[in-house]
Amino acid sequence: MKFRNAKGNLAVIVIMTLFCLTVFSYGVYASYFGLLLFQQGALNFIIGLFFLGCIGVPSIYWVVTTAYRYFAAVPTCINQRKIRIINLLLIHEKDLYSETEIWLGKAVKELAQAEGLPKTPLVGIEWSDDNPNAYAVGATRSHALVVATSGLIKQLNQKQVAAVMAHELGHIANLDTMAKTLLSAALDGVMLILFKPMQLIVWYFGRFAALLMLVAGLIYGIMGNWQHATAFFIGVLVWMILMMLPTITKFLVTLLTFWHSRWREYHADAVAARLTSVDDMASALTVLDRLPFQPPKQNQEQMATLWIRVAMNEEITIFHWLKHTHPPIYKRIEVLRRGIYLK
What we know:
Layout: H1 7-37, H2 42-71, H3 73-81, E1 84-86, H4 99-115, E2 122-126, E3 134-138, E4 144-149, H5 150-155, H6 158-173, H7 176-204, H8 206-222, H9 226-275, H10 278-290, H11 300-304, H12 329-338
Parallel strand pairs: 2-4
Antiparallel strand pairs: 1-2, 3-4
């Protein structure tokens, strides 16, 4: 069955697309409502300014920038990370590409055709990165990019490199690059659109009310009127919960993003095993696990979910899932050997 490992991402993409459309509608309505209030007196002018400046404009700005980040992911990545692109149409030009670049381009093309991708992704090498790694970005299966670092090419043999590139093609075939971009954008959207205005009100205005409620509660408590004191203390508790709500929500959305990233690694490994072999993919993961890894500081958080491996401590605890975007490599090899996602 073609792209059988992509099913799980379709629901994610639909939900996140609806979320983006909802935020855009929310921003347009807030802007319209704010402009209406401008014409209804001084107080309403201030309220309208809040709706326009804190909700409407940021919502529309977020949707526009998210759309740009999504569709411009490939050229942005090429420019930011200084990637040398291998043009498959010019691969036979004399002295234009090295033997390694020619082999990599041909290997990716054959693997992409074997997986049934509508178009071979752009193939690039990040020669400035000696860390053995690879990643894929792209908005669709027809507009994508797969990249190998110089460290990967130098420290793995050709079968292992081919397996790693097949893994990255698996991310494209499974729509992981699309889903990851939308999930990452959702985190920014939730924090910017839903909580920034609330934090503005709760912190800059609500803290004075909370302080007054705390003092009033203490006074009523000293006077023995615990019914009124409890009511004021509950008000303070609500204020504290509202202050912590953005942090809690960010934590939960981050956990969701990490879980999705770990889950999709197993599916990409399965694609690589089908296109090459279980032994080749397991061998590549084993070598990667043994090699040192120091990720570049630039865009480390944004790139973490894209890499085939991330820096991990040797001892993996039961709380691994709280702080890592990838499963432990030994677990990935075990799942590959058992053929769970190959069925």
